[in-house]
Design brief:
Elements (H helix, E strand, L loop, with lengths): L2 E6 L5 H8 L5 E5 L2 E6 L3 E4 H4 L3 H4 L3 E5 L1 E6 L3 E6 L1
Antiparallel strand pairs: 1-3, 1-5, 2-3, 4-7, 6-7
């Protein structure tokens, strides 16, 4: 099942979607002001790889479709199918 993670396309979030898109199973597309990360597999983003400070990290998710957040802590953001 394809699931989508929406991230607002602002400079502060660029590394979030770049790190996620580096995964072979993740495709990116743009819908309005959002970068959409789409995959049939879980999407996992390592916070340290993004270089994001905590305030940006905990505000990067703009929406979800077909999935739920199963981890969102100081280490990683993980979304999986429902």
């Amino acid at each position: 099942m394809t699931h989508r993670l929406f991230v607002l396309d602002v400079p502060e979030n660029t590394r979030v979607h770049e790190v996620a898109a580096a995964q072979e199973t993740v495709k990116t597309l743009r819908i309005g002001p959002y970068v959409v990360l789409e995959s049939d597999e879980p999407i996992v983003v390592d916070r340290r790889a993004t270089g994001c400070r905590h305030a940006v990290w905990y505000s990067c998710v703009a929406g979800l479709a077909g999935c739920r957040i199963t981890q969102w802590d100081k280490d990683a953001l993980r979304v999986e199918a429902r």
